[in-house]
Design brief:
With about 260 residues, the chain is of the alpha/beta class. The chain has one domain: 3-Layer(aba) Sandwich (Stationary-phase Survival Protein Sure Homolog, Chain: A), CATH 3.40.1210.10. The protein has 6 helices and 13 strands. The strands form 3 sheets. It has a 9-stranded mixed β-sheet with strand order 3-4-2-1-5-6-7-13-8. Helix 4 links the parallel strand 6 and strand 7. The termini are far apart.
């Protein structure tokens, strides 16, 4: 059996500790190939650099720095630069939660989502504190999940979003399949002046809260468990589709009296 080929990316940049811990953990599972942004790219979502040239620098064998987004990194690696299709794409280890609605902003999740769009089993992994002390816990989870996925695969058009508390491995109480929870963002727009009296803005505010939902990713992490949430490619809300069809059927697009 050939050695699994694993593509790694992140949104914190190629020098981020989490990426190096991830590479260390998965090097026992397969051959590691890293394509990661050249700098911090948190909260870029699924951005793709359509209007900018992209440059790729090999900083050491199989480690490549890209001046683009996490999605750019995966697209370039898979479609052009690797020369083969990897068996697995993993994005992380991110310092900071990607729970609930965070997934819509997260560059970490987008890296894995792009892998899924390209037809490759993929997962993203995050520790829910911004200055983690226990990367070894996430390393263990990443290794377990990578081994499982390489053996059993994932359903088509599904990726996994993994979050875990920043606690020692022995304090983890289990691994749980979860639903995506819901954030309560408390964003604040701060207006300031630069030295030339121009106005600029910071989007900030308090740390977001969340709604308590049984079976959610928030609940699992709060119970010292590893949360594994399946995310799907198709975002269609089928429960609303028939109602919307009925509503739209009453509209006449060319009725000039409306």
């Amino acid at each position: 059996m050939s050695t699994p080929q694993i593509l790694l990316t992140n949104d914190d940049g190629i020098g981020a500790p989490g990426l190096h811990y991830l590479a260390e953990a998965l090097s026992t599972v397969g051959d590691i190939h890293v394509y990661a942004p050249d700098r911090q790219r948190s909260a870029v979502g699924h951005g793709v650099s359509l209007h900018l040239p992209l440059r790729v620098t090999e900083i050491r064998p199989r480690w490549h720095m890209v001046d683009g987004t996490p999605a750019d990194c995966v697209i370039l690696a898979v479609r052009k630069l690797l020369g083969f299709r990897p068996d697995l794409v993993v994005s992380g280890i991110n310092p900071g939660a990607n729970l609930g609605d965070d997934v819509t902003y997260s560059g970490t999740v987008a890296g894995a989502f792009e892998g899924m769009l390209l037809g490759i089993p993929s997962f993203a992994i995050s520790i829910v504190t911004h200055q983690p002390k226990h990367f070894e816990t996430a390393q263990r989870a990443a290794s377990l999940l990578a081994t499982l996925i390489l053996r059993q695969g994932l359903p088509q058009d599904i990726m996994l979003n993994v979050n875990l508390p920043d606690i020692p491995p022995e304090d983890i109480t289990g691994i749980e399949a979860t639903t995506m929870g819901r954030r309560n963002y408390q964003d604040e727009i701060v207006e300031r002046k630069d030295p030339r009296n121009g106005t600029y803005y910071w989007i900030g505010g308090d740390m977001p809260d969340h709604y308590a939902t049984p079976g959610s990713d928030f609940e699992a992490v709060g119970n010292q468990r590893v949360s594994v949430t399946p995310l799907k490619r198709n975002l269609t809300e089928y429960d609303s589709l028939d109602d919307l069809r009925g509503t739209l059927s009453s509209l006449s697009y060319h009725d000039k009296n409306r």
